[in-house]
Every structure is written in structure tokens, then in C-alpha cells.
Amino acid sequence: MTARGRTRIVERRSDPPLVLRPTPEAVHLVGGTAGPLGGDDLALDVEVGPGARLTVRTVAASLVYPGTGPSRLAVTARVDRGGHLDWAPEPTVAIAGCDHEASASIDLAEDATLRWSEQLVLGRSGEAGGRVRSTLWADLAGSPLLRHALDVGGDAPDGPAITAGARAIGNLLVVGPEAAPLDREAQSPERAVLDLAGGGALVTVVGGSACASTS
């Protein structure tokens, strides 16, 4: 953050297929090539400084393709005191035959805030979805806040306690004042709100297509 209270990017480095493009409103992840592709091992590190605010978006859905082995994407985010991170990419589509591992690890300072949205769609229209194993871990002020794992698609087991056959899964993790007004009355088999012991909430939605809203 500058002396005038404005957020500015002090370092930006990227290589295809994850290319970073800043705009006045957000930093966009642009697919420089197709992928993730089986065999890719990708990593993205995000750091938000004290009092700064960062919005991250993508310009289109990400298609995960099969290949010579599993594909991997690891995102690490750190948000310093008074900082805010708003992460909401377009859905990830797991194409039939893919084997994908996705992990997100978020480290929040004591008064940092967060809005982290993830959407997964199993397969394109008319096809079965590939296998996806994902984890979402968050720490607040050095203590564990959330440990969330998902293993779906492909030959992964399914049932009423997992996705009940739904093709789309959305998660929204909110830490800070935005967690208070979340609608907790609209609980259903397709939507659940979990209040976290350390503060904040996790909203999970399942459906037949991309989850347009997890709020």
C-alpha cells in the first residue's frame, strides 16, 4: 500500500499457462496455453501486504485435460495485517479422463479478511467428469481455521454424504465482517453454511451445473 492509501502491485512474475494480467479492478489469471494438462505441476504464490486489497479473477473457465500423469496446481496465499484478498476465478472443468490435484493454503494475519470462492464442474456437457482431489487449508493468526478436502469424479466414491451425483460443487470461505450477513436460514441438501470456530464461515453448494452463487 502506498503512502496515499492506494494498493499497488510491487512484484508480478508469471509463465504460461498461468499468466497474470493486472487491470484497474483486479489481477486476472489468463490461460497462456491449454491446461492444466496431465503431467503439469503448477504453483501460484499470492501475497497481500499490510492494509492492501487484492482482487483475483480469471477471464474464462479452466479446463483440466488428461495427459501422461496427474496434473497439480498449488496456490499459496498470505494476507498481512489489515489486508483483504478476494479470490473468485471462473469454474474449473474436469474433463473426462483427467486426474487433477488442487491445493490452496491461506495464511491470514489476525485482522486480515478474506473472500475465497472455488467452483468445480465435473465434465463438459454430456460427458463424465475426471478425478479431482482438492484441499483448502486456512490459518488465522497462526492457528488452524479450516481443513477441507474433496475427492470426486472419475472412480472416486460418491453418495448422499459427498455430492449425491451433483456435477458442480462450489465453496465460499469468508473471513471478516462479510461472514455475518450470510443467509443461514436457507440450509438445504444443496446448500450448507458452516460457521468456523476460529471465525468466518464456509458455504458449500452442489448442483447440476456451475454454482452461480454461494453467498
From TrEMBL:
GO cellular component: cytoplasm
Protein keywords: Chaperone, Cytoplasm, Nickel insertion
One annotated GO molecular function: nickel cation binding
UniProt keyword annotation of Chaperone present: yes
Keyword Thylakoid: no
Main subcellular localisation: cytoplasm
Transmembrane segments: none
Subcellular location: Cytoplasm
Family: Belongs to the UreD family.
Subunit structure: UreD, UreF and UreG form a complex that acts as a GTP-hydrolysis-dependent molecular chaperone, activating the urease apoprotein by helping to assemble the nickel containing metallocenter of UreC. The UreE protein probably delivers the nickel.
Functional note: Required for maturation of urease via the functional incorporation of the urease nickel metallocenter.
Protein name according to UniProt: Urease accessory protein UreD
